Sequence to fold (198 residues):
Amino acid sequence: MAPAPIRIFGYAIISVEGIIADANGRMPVALIIDSDHSFFQASLARAQAVVHGRNSAEGGPTADQRHRVILTNTIDAVSCVSSSPRVLLWNPNGGSFAQVLESLPLEEGIIAIIGGTAVFDLFLTIGYDAFFLSRAVHAHVRGGRPVFSKIPGQSPQQILTDHGLFLRREQNLDDKVTLEEWTREQNPLSGFSSKPGS
Ligand SMILES: NC(=O)c1ccc[n+]([C@@H]2O[C@H](COP(=O)([O-])OP(=O)(O)OC[C@H]3O[C@@H](n4cnc5c(N)ncnc54)[C@H](OP(=O)(O)O)[C@@H]3O)[C@@H](O)[C@H]2O)c1
Fold:
């Protein structure tokens, strides 16, 4: 797990089946929901860095203000992008997350992990401090890409539990989305405000 001042938060919105993208790697329309989008953008606005795979993006108006780590197999380890000083490329098969942290000018704050599947899987091992799982309770998407690769064999909730996280709070963002906040027991909501994602 990362040193204490850095907190690693995961964010995903899933269908009833635990899916984040369709079989072609596109975000299903059924998962694009205003209440979750607002929550996601407000959460990212509090993050100092965002981590995602090469085919994902946060897409918000303030995206350029944050440090960004993009996973790709096209480089050896950790590499800067000369045209984008806030962007790092990372191949976890060649470079460690500790090397990524050394390359980021951060000593504290939130690093937001926003997918896709292989990235969410990787940080199960590195260790989430919290995972914000939005469940689109009426959206059915079958045959696509799951939030974690062990789905459908295991539920997202079982996987988060198996990796040391506890369901701390559950709230309806509206009648379409239920937000689950998963945190570590030894860190029970300390540092969290009453607003989700703070
Ligand atoms: N519903 C949600 O919450 C949610 C969350 C995230 C994404 N999405 C959606 O999911 C779709 C993208 O899915 P995706 O499966 O293509 O995921 P992705 O993680 O965005 O992109 C996959 C690419 O990222 C790189 N990568 C990922 N993990 C890696 C690893 N461990 N080591 C090295 N490289 C790694 C590889 O790039 P190279 O090919 O360059 O090696 C891989 O081809 C988009 O439509 C996005 O909108 C939805």
Residues 36 and 93 are 32 Å apart (CA to CA).
